[in-house]
Write a structure and sequence with these properties.
Elements: H1 2-31, E1 33-35, E2 37-39, E3 41-50, E4 55-65, E5 71-76, E6 83-84, E7 89-93, H2 96-138, H3 144-183, E8 186-188, E9 193-198, E10 205-206, E11 219-234, E12 246-251, E13 254-266, E14 279-286, E15 300-317, E16 326-331, E17 336-341, E18 343-347, E19 351-356, E20 363-365, E21 379-381
Parallel strand pairs: 1-21
Antiparallel strand pairs: 2-20, 3-15, 4-11, 4-15, 5-7, 5-10, 6-9, 7-8, 9-11, 11-14, 12-13, 12-15, 13-14, 15-19, 16-17, 18-19
Amino acid sequence: MNIYRQHRKLIIAIIIATIVILYFSFSDKEKRIPTTLHTVDTGTVEFTVSNTRAGTIKACRRAKLSPAMGGQVARLVVKEGDKVSENQLLMEIWNEDLKSQVQLAKSEALASKQTAEEFCLIADAAKRDEQRIMTLWNSKLASEEKADQAQTNTKTREAACKAARSRADVSLARLSVAEASLERTRLRAPFPGFVAEINGEIGEYATPSPPGIPTPPAIDIVDTSCLYILAPIDEVDAPNIVEGMEARITLDAYPKKNFLGAVRRIAPYVFEVEKQARTVDIEAIFMDETEYKELIPGYSANVEVIIDAKYDVVRIPTEAIVNSNQIYILDSSDDSIHLKTIETGISNWSFTEVIKGVKLKDKIVLSIDREGIADGVLIKPEVSSDD
């Protein structure tokens, strides 16, 4: 009976001890913080500078055209979306009066030309008469008076010929003036491109844009054969950029594609807008012209200029860094994490180069903003970001 009681007590003690162990073990696991880890590896790290606000795709050539003189639209030769060639007529203002002036100037120029020809033929005839009389005078068959008269007549006729030719030139100049005035009523394409916008219809009144007063253009011509990106860079980052630097171009319209580009120009001044950060505009071009054949001026774009790059270096995700130069590193013996100071190199939003402080295959904490993460706490590792 005593042996039975002793065994019973032993069994109860074992059960109680097991329950206590399981309780504390379960309680300890419940206290562990679920944490995302990353395994330190090697790769490429770039130091880049990006635009502060969205950039814009621009056409290398774009002309917002307005007529040189105001008037009623008489002809509208193109429509929006049309492809046009250089010097092609786009729009014409009512100009019947100027056409009449051109026609009058042409008639006057023709009449002046014919009059000049008449006077010059008479001068040629006078010259021939002079030559005959001078031959007779040399043979003593004509008087000196006759010879003088012949010479004077020739000079007079030649002067009249020159005067008539000068009047003909004046008539041609008047014709040129009339034609220039007529041309001012015509709007022509300054280069090949597409009609992006038309403001006005036949019968409406079109006016030129006064200096300093922005008005809608009559016709907007865009040459899409050459495109570039205009993007604002923070004044703090601008000194790092040099013309010719490689850049990556991304577009909201093509979110899954990166375009290779290069910095073409850096503005020589700071753009200042009230209540906004001061920026410097840069221009970036596409390295492969075939890539932007489908792009349209006006698309929003981002430019990431590559200032420096290092390859096959120890790197960690930038999001894992605490206080600019510290990380949480895992002690795999007890699943605790410890804050460690590191020495960093170049970095970007994605990765940071680590010069000293970690080794390959070390596990570091990514979820540093999770509640409870601190030096020395126990964690419950989750699936690693690189698994």
